[in-house]
Amino acid sequence: MGVTPSTAGAQPGGTVTTHRLGPLCVTTTESGPVEIPPSAQAIGRPTADDHITVLLQASGRVLLDQSDRQTPLGPGCLVFTDTNRPYTLIGGDRSRTHAFRLPQQSLGLREADRRRVAEAPVPPDTEIAALVVPFLSRLADRAGAYEPHLRPLLARNAADLLATLAAERLAHGTPRAGTDTAGTLLRLRIKGYVEDHLTDPDLTPRTIAAAHHISVRHVHRLFQAEGTTVGRWIRHRRLEACRRALGRPARDAPVLTAIAHRFGFTSYSHFSRAFRAAYGMSPSEWRGRLGV
Known about the structure:
By secondary structure, the chain is of the alpha+beta class. The chain contains 11 helices and 9 strands. The strands form 2 sheets. A 5-stranded antiparallel sheet has the order 1-2-9-4-7. Strand 1 and strand 2 form a beta hairpin. Helix 6 crosses helix 7. The longest helix has 22 residues. The chain is globular and about 60 Å long.
């Protein structure tokens, strides 16, 4: 998706620019003293409420007005928003705000944990934020310049960093009734383990359980809390890895069968069927669409 400039909800000279990097939608709002309602922030936004939005204040100062609470955001501040409640940005001077919208499953957070991490902004001087903020700032500033085959990978990196930040916030926060912080953190560690072992043909719920010293039943329960299964998650991440590999430039592009075998598919026909079911086209059609 290309640049989408808009002056919806902004004074003359204000813009809302959106780029899509795979599953990640990056929207940058630049404006003077003005209220920017959710309708202006929603360019390129999916209608289903299965996404999470993270705001990063790049410059200037704004108030995040959500329900009955106003949260001041200064340069470098980052905040997870509660997607069940529309918000308005109120700018007191010239400001620039980045919004990163991505599927909630990318962060592996349950609804209760999403509400907890949205309770307060993340100041820029915390240890993890000091790593995350520069990456996200650079990503937003150059969102329209990245090659198509790099965009899903960058989205995955952004999701991983935000998941790490969310885990850090949960680990150091006060446990609340109805939350399962330990389960969330363990699920995030397991997902990191899966990412590191996608090429391992023996990656199964049993090997995951053994690596984390828990029962196979416990592994299954952790993923049931997200409405999915371990096997489905592994297949999804392997397909995403294959899709990234298919987008490599022609001079470096491996053959399709090699990609399938590298990421744990026992046969090319099985891989091709799974890929088509997930993305609506065959691996060769996907590669051709990218012009690789």
